[in-house]
Amino acid sequence: MVSFPVPTIQRRNVAFAASLACMTCAGTLYLFAAYAQGLKQKRGLSQTTLNAIASCGGFGQYLSGPIWGRLSDTHDRRKLCGGILLLSGYWSLALGYSSDLIPVWGLAVAYAFVGLGSSGVFNTALSTSVKNYNQREHGFAVGVPVAFFGLSAFVFSQLQRMFVVSEVQVGNTSGVDTFRYLVFIGVVTGGGALIGSQFLYDCSALVRRDHQRSESSASDGDSGTTSLATVTVPTSEESQLLSISSSDATVVQPAAIEYSIFVQRDAWMLFGAFILLTGTGLMYINNVGAIVIALSSAKALPTDIQATQRLHVGLLSICNCAGRIATGLLSDVLMTRFKMTRLVGLIAGGGLISLSLLMGIFVVKEDGLDVLVLVTLLLGLGYGAIFSAAPAIVGRWFGVERFGANWGWYQWAPALGGQICNLVFGLYLDAAKNGLPECRGLLCFKNAFLITLFGCAASIGVLLLLNSFRGGFKVRRVAEL
Fold first, then answer.
1. Contact 22/125 with Cβ under 8 angstroms?
2. What are 9-49's pLDDT values in tens digits?
3. To 10 degrees, the CA torsion angle through 206, 211, 216, 222?
């Protein structure tokens, strides 16, 4: 166990707490459904236009990942003020809600700012947490912060109750003062992120120095261990963990070598699998409301349908959070005690998502909202698992020195996968409407589930093949544990 100086431990703990606060502020992009209908009614938007605005937020969040990640690697993360973008984005969205002077494209730009701010806060907080902990603790260092990111939508959706007013006051049927709610989200998330980012202390230099000193002492009389300053392009889990003779190692400064991880086969295989798994999860998260309508009785009251939709949104958020924490902590245990690769967590998450799709195809029946709860639980846990395992794998396989930039590129996977899978779902749902205003019945989503199930199965197959390339589930010799 590496021993850290007390001041370093204290600063690292403060930075970790700050990263949790920042993550809670960064995860509000999934809150769009909470005020989308109010925005749609007030501005007279079509569902297509509303979805386009939502997509701008997603593109702002995911496609800016490499830029924010690179900045997190090369600049003081306390000065990267993504909170300003959150504040300005939500404030502009509130003004666009209350006034027709802001055009529809202005609403899209405002929500893109929200996505950019979310990405900035997320990447700076995650990079700080990853670099402040040793690799064997990355399950914890990644799992807990991203769990708070997943829980953010649930937290702020509960706070929406503070803004419920009479329909006469609001002027629409949502029962929520959407303008004040959007301003509240902007002030809390923007202000919270700005304050929290000032405590994202970088302890990586001290952690690296003490780790080198500890390993240097432990290797006296032995063949030695690899310095953390050694830059290698790992080809297997085992090769990264094996002791390397200091006489054979090429020691350079971390910043002296710049290489793209995508020159490696493993990076592409991981990226491809991540596209389909995240896309399937986003498809369900974004369309669970439509699935609830499809399975609801034609005689069901709108208030009952809305209550069921809120239930599934809440369950997704909670299970997403639980899956991230559980996968992070369990992957640390499996790695340190049983010498298991972190790919286990990613494959398990893909298995849970696939199981949820199988239940949706073969178990859910007409008016089967009770069974749909189990589908939601499984998918939420699986989605959380893959988003907890993937960053830890990227940091472990490709190093932490450029983790921000490397993980930033992997954030393109949800943007691509989400668009593909949402398009598939929308095409099948529209085809099953038969000219009706709302789609009812299993055909609304069953074919989309079947297509994405094949995609998930292919992803798991790719991950299993990748695991065999890297030496199997069991890491035979671990030098640094």
1. yes
2. 788 889 899 999 999 999 888 777 777 767 877 888 775 67
3. -170
Taking the C-alpha atoms of residue 98 and residue 100, their distance in angstroms, rounded to an integer, is: 7
The neighbour count for residue 90, using CB atoms within 10 Å, is: 26
Residue 119 CA to residue 66 CA, distance in Å, equals 10
Q: Could you give the CA distance from residue 325 to residue 323 in angstroms, rounded to a whole number?
A: 6
Q: Report how far residue 171's alpha carbon sits from residue 46's, in angstroms, rounded to the nearest whole number.
A: 19
The answer to whether the beta carbons of residues 55 and 177 sit under 8 Å apart is no
Tokens of 14: 């403060």
Band (113; pLDDT cuts 50, 70, 90): very high
Q: What's at 187, amino acid-wise?
A: V
For residue 140 the two structure tokens come to 């914890």
Q: Across-strand partners of 164?
A: 176
- pTM of the predicted structure, to 2 decimals: 0.74
| 8 Å CB contact between 72 and 127 | yes
350 has pLDDT over 50? yes
Q: Residue holding tokens 């003081």?
A: 76
Output phi, psi for 400, to 5 deg.
-95, -15
Concatenated DSSP letters of 286-352: HHHHHHHHHHS-TT--HHHHHHHHHHHHHHHHHHHHHHHHHHHHHHHHHHHHH-B-THHHHHHHHHH
Q: Under a CB-based contact definition with an 8 Å cutoff, are residues 20 and 148 in contact?
A: yes
Write b or e for each residue in 275-287: b if 16 or more Cβ atoms lie within 10 A of its Cβ, otherwise e. Answer: bbbbbbbbbbbbb
Please tell me the total number of residues recorded for the chain in this structure. 481
180, exposed or middle or buried, with CB in 10 Å at 0-12, 13-18, 19+? middle
450-473 confidence digits (pLDDT tens): 999 999 999 999 999 999 998 888
Residue type, 24: T
Confidence of residue 231 (pLDDT cuts 50, 70, 90): very low
**Residue 69 C-alpha from the chain's centroid:** 14
Which tokens in the block code for residue 461? 């197959």
Give the closest residue to 61 by CA, choosing from 34, 102, 32, 40. 32
Q: Yes or no: say if 32 and 90 are a contact pair by the CB < 8 Å rule.
A: no
